[in-house]
Amino acid sequence: xSMEAGVGVMGTKLGMMSYFEPNGKVVPVTVVGFxxxxxxxxxxxxxxxxxxxxxxxxxxxxxxxxxKPEMGHLEKxxxxxxxxxxxxxxxGLDGFEVGQKLLFEELFKEGDLVDVAGTTIGKGFQGLFxxxxxxxxxxxxxxxxxxxxF
Length: 150
Description:
The structure is a single chain. The protein contains 4 helices and 5 strands, in the order βββαβαβαα. By secondary structure, the chain is an alpha+beta fold. The protein has a 3-stranded antiparallel sheet with strand order 3-4-5. The chain has a two-stranded antiparallel sheet with strand order 1-2. The longest helix has 17 residues, at about 135-150. The protein is globular and about 55 Å long. The N and C termini lie far apart (about 60 Å).
């Protein structure tokens, strides 16, 4: 990750929609929601930790969903319990303080390029039927052949 990128925010994918440009072109767009969170939970400095970074928490969660060490870390910062904690390395820590809420409008402006990273929902092992079309068609034909045989 590049240190020139700056601090980031975390969000949740809400869905997809279409955006129509003035010339009539349809552009697929992903809608990202920013729930309660994106709060600075810790500031790491070069003097104490060996590097400059800002830790950001996202998505409020009930107290009992976190472990005691996680709760202690967040209580020390004086912030609400958060499910996700992410660290962003920076070159300078000017303008950040613990407990500060990062507002989307202040960090980004229209036309900015952003890097997006995400995790997919796990589907588990699907078996041979869905692994590739030739095999699934072969097995379907083989099973139907066995059914006709008996």
